[in-house]
Design a protein that fits this description.
- This protein has 106 residues and is mostly helical.
- The protein is built from five helices and two strands.
- The chain has a two-stranded parallel ribbon with strand order 1-2.
- The protein starts with 5 loop residues before the first helix and ends in a 7-residue tail after the last helix.
- The protein binds a DNA duplex (13 and 13 nucleotides) through helix 2, helix 3 and strand 2.
Amino acid sequence: MTELNFTSLVKQVIKQIPYGKVAFYGQIASIAGNHRAARQVVRVLHSSSTKDALPWHRVINKQGKISLPIGNGYEKQKHLLQAEGVEFDSSDRIDFKRFLWQPDNH
DNA sequence: CAACTGACGATAG
DNA sequence: CCTATCGCCAGTT
């Protein structure tokens, strides 16, 4: 373990997302050290979301929307978030002012 | 080793 | 609001 490659770091970051909060790909990548590595975050979720028990449903894109295609996880993720108290507006977007995870801002 | 692939992001039109 | 395009980087093929 210990901090190693960027990928492992991303996993650690995702595990830190608190209940009822969400984070977007670029944010996670930035915290992990590479603000341009949003795509690696995608890969990490694909390869370790289930085996490492990551709260993958708390990861969305910067538009405050779920990136999964409808019919292939979209509704499932939405449901999981709503179960944590996260609300969606009429456009199915999450209000970052209320639900974005802000680690360096209480 | 080269090419391909992504649950992305920003910019331009 | 929408599509198109480029950039970025690691894991796969």
